[in-house]
Structure formats: C-alpha cells, structure tokens
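Journal club prep — side note

Before the paper discussion, L.F. wants everyone to see what a predicted structure for a comparable chain looks like in token form. Sequence:
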Amino acid sequence: MESMGKKKPRPRRSVTPEFKAAIVELSRRDDRSIGPVPKDFDPTETAVRDWLRQAEVDAGERDGLTSSEREELAQLRRENRRLREDVEILKRATAFFAKATR
C-alpha cells in the first residue's frame, strides 16, 4: 500500500552543459517567471534556479565560486582524500614492518 501524500523521488539525470546553457538562456530571455520553463523541458524548477544562479556567478554578476573553481575544488578534495588514504596505508605498513623487525 502506498503511503498517502508521499511522492516518489525523481530519478537523477545527467544533462549536458549545452542543455543547461540553453535553459538558462531561455529563462533569461523570457519576461515570464521561471515556472513554465521546467514544465516545458522537464528539469525541476529548483534545478533551473540553481543553473541560473551559477550562470550569474560565472558571469561575475553574483558572488560565489565559479564553475571552474568548483571543479578545481572538487578535484583537490578528491586528491586530498586519496593522499590521506595513502598516508594511512604507509603508517600501517611502517607499524607492521617495525613490529616484524623486533
């Protein structure tokens, strides 16, 4: 039995940067509110608002991290996580070999 009032979450979809740019351009060009654009093209209204906000940041119209800065930050965080794992492995190996040589 389905629970009343609960919606199933929408499946995550990947969209191309070109699609995002087209939706942002269409949203900026129209004098109407953002609401009809997602209904016509199927992304969520929240996603369109996020894309618009990020486009404003990238254009220098709003403060925040640009897309390239976000990408670099994500890459640095991945690298940092990998290096921490490497250090942990080396610590364990050092402890193992120190214990074995006694």
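L.F.'s comment for the group: The chain has a mean pLDDT of 86. Keep this in mind when we get to the figures.
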